Structures are given as structure tokens and as C-alpha cells.
Amino acid sequence: MIKLKIITLGKLKEKYLKDAEAEYLKRLSGYAKCELVEIEPIRLADNPSQAEIEKALKAEAELIFKKIPENSAVAAMCIEGKQYSSEELSSLMFSKINGGAAALTFIIGSSYGLHPDVKARADVKLSFSKMTFPHQLFRIMLLEQIYRGFKIEEGSKYHK
Questions:
Q1: What is the domain-level CATH number for residue 132?
Q2: What is the pTM of this model?
Q3: Residue 159 domain-assigned?
Q4: Is residue 112 a part of any domain in this protein?
Q5: Over the range 31-57, which residues count as b (16 or more CB within 10 Å of their CB) and which as e?
Q6: Does residue 42 carry a pLDDT above 80?
Q7: How many domains, in total, are found in the chain?
Q8: Residue 119's domain spans which residues?
Q9: In the list 57, 75, 140, 157, which could disulfide-bond 115, CB 3.0-4.6 Å?
Q10: Exposed e or buried b for every residue in 3-13, given b needs 16+ CB within 10 A?
Q11: Looking at the domain assignment, is residue 160 inside a domain?
Q12: pLDDT tens digits for 126-159?
């Protein structure tokens, strides 16, 4: 069974989002061994300088790198990433799985994004939209799309 890891900066707060997350993790458990890793973002002042932001992102990157499994295909979620349809994302996931990746790792950064080193480590940079979404909601959206990717691969009617 493929290993699936979601590395995210921050925690879910609202019960309805926790419930949605639990539901998608339960659904995914039939397809992958799932692990969700929450990393506490580096706290910054209300109006941090660019140097302070860079320092925080670098520190977060070090924490992220410690959590990436060996031989994992890595997808960094970032605004400048490529936008994929659900079918294209499914194809991408399974090309990595069938290409020998032992795990799929998706990384969601803090509100300031991801350090360039994390993006450089990624096999693919993904963007869901040019729009901005709350991190907590995006996490659910990502889980749903990963689940949809597995359903597309199996030819299920879930994806219409």
C-alpha cells in the first residue's frame, strides 16, 4: 500500500473542518497508509520585515525536510505552481507511484508560503487556483482531490 503524507504548517481549529478531514482520511485509508503532520508555524510580529519572513521560512523548511520520507515524490503547494485538472492530478500521482516512489508527500506552507529550498526539493509545484484560500479549508480541498485521484484511477463513478 502506498504511503501518503500531508505536511502542513498549522492546525485545524474548527470542528466541522476536523470532521471533514477525518472523513477524507478514513476514505483514503482504503488506498494508502495516511499520515498528517502538523508543524507549528514560526511566529512573527504583525508587520514582519522581509528578512524576518525569510528567516522564518528557512526555519520552517528545516522542520519540513525532517518529515519527508525517503524515496518520496514531493508536491509543494504554491501559488506559482502548475494548475492541474482532477484527471491530470490523478495521472501525475499514479505516474509517481508506478515510477517507483515509495510515498507521496504533499506540503502546505504557512501563510507566508514555502521557502525556495522546499520548492526546489519538490518534484512538482501545484496550484489549485489563482485565488487565495484559507489554509484550513485548502487542506480539506487537497485531501478531497487526492481521494478523487484514487477514485479516478480505479474508474469509480465518484468522479463525474
A1: 3.40.1280.10
A2: 0.95
A3: no
A4: yes
A5: bbebeebebebbeeeeeeeeeebeebb
A6: yes
A7: 1
A8: 2-154
A9: 57
A10: bbbbbbbbebe
A11: no
A12: 999 988 888 899 999 999 999 999 999 999 988 7
